[in-house]
Amino acid sequence: MELEEIIAIHVEAIEVILNHILYIRGVYPAQIFKKRRVYNTPVFIVAFPALNSYLANILKTVQNLLTNAVQQLKLELIIYSNEAEHKESYFLEMQPGQADFTQDQYLMDYEQQLRAALYKFADRVKHLPKLGQNAKFKVHIHTTQTTFTQLSHDAQYQEFPWLQSTESPHQLKQQKLCLLPLSKVDKVGLRMEAYISN
């Protein structure tokens, strides 16, 4: 399987996972999500134009970075009530060069692992307290200074600019928190972790 196809598979999985987090954690009302069947399991995808556009721009950026030889990329979805207080952080680490589909050409194992990861995630966060109506989210991409510089000078990102974060990448770790083990999808080089602050 070509690297381009592997990256497209990664981006689809990331889209599903980001939407799944937003739906399961109740960041937005359930009414703005539509049920779709992906990986032979029902998932909820945002059906609100402004939010769709934001997520589409994130996914486009991730796809371009992975296509342009960024070998490892970490995406962080942060749920917060105000800028000074991050409640939850979900990390998606992508390593498309480590994906191995030689024994899974029809992606049966891949779908099974992702389906299991979605169910495990829902099960592990169901006991967390509700976020409340003032919950918001943002997405950070952890990458190198060189990649950021290239991104900020790329004309296609002028309407959706990426800014360098002024926050410490481990700001959440300074608070009292618990580490919630989620899932690693071994065959596709995709790993997911969460830090939940108390």
**Category by helix and strand content:** alpha+beta
Shape field: globular
What multimeric state do the chains show?
A: single chain
Task: Compute the number of helices.
Answer: 4
Report the CATH architecture: 2-Layer Sandwich
Radius of gyration in whole Å, from Cα?
A: 17 Å
Share of residues in helices = 25-40%
Secondary structure: number of strands:
7
Structural summary, described in words:
- With 198 residues, this protein is an alpha+beta fold.
- It has a single domain (3-197), classed as HORMA domain (Cell Cycle, Spindle Assembly Checkpoint Protein, Chain A, 2-Layer Sandwich).
- It is built from four helices and seven strands.
- The protein has helices spanning 3-24, 49-67, 108-125, 145-152, and strands at residues 33-38, 41-46, 73-82, 85-94, 136-142, 177-185, 190-197.
- Strands 5-3-4-7-6 form a five-stranded antiparallel beta sheet.
- Strand 1 (33-38) and strand 2 form a beta hairpin.
- Helix 1 (3-24) runs antiparallel to helix 2 (49-67) and helix 1 (3-24) runs parallel beside helix 3.
- The radius of gyration is 17 Å and the shape is globular.
How do you describe this structure in short?
This protein has 198 residues and is of the alpha+beta class. It is built from 4 helices and 7 strands, in the order αββαββαβαββ.
Features:
about 200 residues; alpha+beta; five-stranded antiparallel sheet; two-stranded antiparallel ribbon; 7 strands; globular; HORMA domain-containing protein; Mad2-like; HORMA_dom_sf
Walk me through the topology.
Elements lengths: L2 H22 L8 E6 L2 E6 L2 H19 L5 E10 L2 E10 L13 H18 L10 E7 L2 H8 L24 E9 L4 E8 L1
Antiparallel strand pairs: 1-2, 3-4, 3-5, 4-7, 6-7
Helix pairs in contact: 1-2, 1-3
